[in-house]
Amino acid sequence: MTTKKFLSSKATCNSHGQDSSYFLGWQEYERNPFHPISNPSGIIQMGLAENQLSFDLLEAWLDAHPEATSFNKVEGKESVFKKLALFQDYHGLPSFKQELAEFMGELRGNKVMFHPSKLVLTAGATSANETLVFCIADPGDAFLLPTPYYPGFDRDLKWRTGVEIIPIRCTSFDGFRLTRPALEEAYDHAVKQKLRVKGVLVTNPSNPLGTTMTSSELRLLADFIEAKAVHLICDEIYSGTNFDSPGFVSITQVVSERPHIADQVHVVYSLSKDLGLPGFRVGAIYSQNDLVVATATKMSSFGLVSSQTQHLLAAILGDKEFTRNYLVQNKTRLRQRQRQLVSGLRSAGIGCLPSNAGLFCWVDMRHLLRSSTFYWEMELWKKILYHVGLNISPGSSCHCTEPGWFRVCFANMTEATLDLAMRRLRQFVHDISTETLSPQRQLGTTTIASWVRRLSVSSQRIRVDHLPR
Ligand SMILES: Cc1ncc(COP(=O)(O)O)c(C=O)c1O
């Protein structure tokens, strides 16, 4: 039996955030994962922002460049294996940092230059965000975050640092845009609670909205952090997923016009989304604040990127023709997939916030709630998870202030699976709307389970051509 005796308060407290419906949905998926052949009525994972759409491009590159992964000794040359195995420099491989800096510039249309000396490598954006919070704030200090926000931030920003998150309440009334009154309200709220505000953190493009921030929102943020003398962390992990206009504008572009606030602004990046490599754990902090760079570099020794990974990625990113082509093709595929989701939802009578980036849509199911409360949002979520067999993320897990919004991911599955998910949803909405009962009256579990099975089996027959090989 596990005992809490003699353990730290971190080990025994419940502030990690893993009891959020966001993570609970993942657990349920793990228990009954959909597979087109072996488990066609299983749960389809639509709560995971993973990009699997362009894997074939990376694999084709690897096939064409076996030397990038091979450690075979070349006559007269230093052994690559030995060089990487003995590599001890915490600052990262210079070749990789150079390529990553250039790639980050490329993602921003080369409108801004990134210098490798201002880059700190981290084990993913998760570590980058936490490291920045450690550099900027002390336990009990506060960060302001626009809602809805990525559910992982409760863990990443608060758990080990002891920092508080104060929500900046954005609403559907303004298309969830950031407004000055909302920013000021959040700041005043923190002050009333006697919290010292140390910064604002935004994701651009937004997770979960799938939208890019406008230049005027970015200027508003710049004005705000200047006036309040606080920091700004911009998590730009989705910068390469901007598949539709308007184009992505990075905070670094705004800062280049306002050098006096440059040392208050820090960018987070990672290869988890744009290149679809979350397992490699490659992230970065980019900052013009020398002390932040120095401190984050020291801290990064607790979450380094292995030299072998850096070696491979330096070769991939160094192939400029490949990366340019990859980014274009990846965006085209994301756009097609997003359109497939939007039209599938539309055919079920469900709308979503217009989006132009990301791996998900922000979906409006307010009309399916029995009443506009978070209780009924959770009831709908459970029904969609257990009966319809789709794991989506309820807005409440993203701290949305309005019940009835859900984040639905579209890039971690095949076209056929997305098609099936939409057919399940359409059938569900049809069944509840043709019932004389209200939408939230429990449908018989057996009835639903049987139509989930029926739909799944027929899809298996029709769309075998789309099954993964
Ligand atoms: C906004 C945002 N930041 C950070 C992360 C974590 O990324 P990584 O896998 O690079 O740690 C995610 C992952 O979903 C994310 O959406």
Automatic annotation (TrEMBL):
Residues 44-425 form the Aminotransferase class I/classII large domain. GO terms for biological process: ethylene biosynthetic process; fruit ripening. The keyword S-adenosyl-L-methionine applies. InterPro entries: Aminotransferase_I/II_large, Ethylene_sulfur-biosynth, NHTrfase_class1_PyrdxlP-BS, PyrdxlP-dep_Trfase, PyrdxlP-dep_Trfase_major, PyrdxlP-dep_Trfase_small. Gene3D superfamilies: Aspartate Aminotransferase, domain 1, Type I PLP-dependent aspartate aminotransferase-like (Major domain). GO terms for molecular function: 1-aminocyclopropane-1-carboxylate synthase activity; pyridoxal phosphate binding; transaminase activity. It catalyses: S-adenosyl-L-methionine = 1-aminocyclopropane-1-carboxylate + S-methyl-5'-thioadenosine + H(+). PANTHER family: 1-AMINOCYCLOPROPANE-1-CARBOXYLATE SYNTHASE 9, BIFUNCTIONAL ASPARTATE AMINOTRANSFERASE AND GLUTAMATE/ASPARTATE-PREPHENATE AMINOTRANSFERASE-RELATED. Belongs to the class-I pyridoxal-phosphate-dependent aminotransferase family. This is 1-aminocyclopropane-1-carboxylate synthase. It comes from Vanilla planifolia.
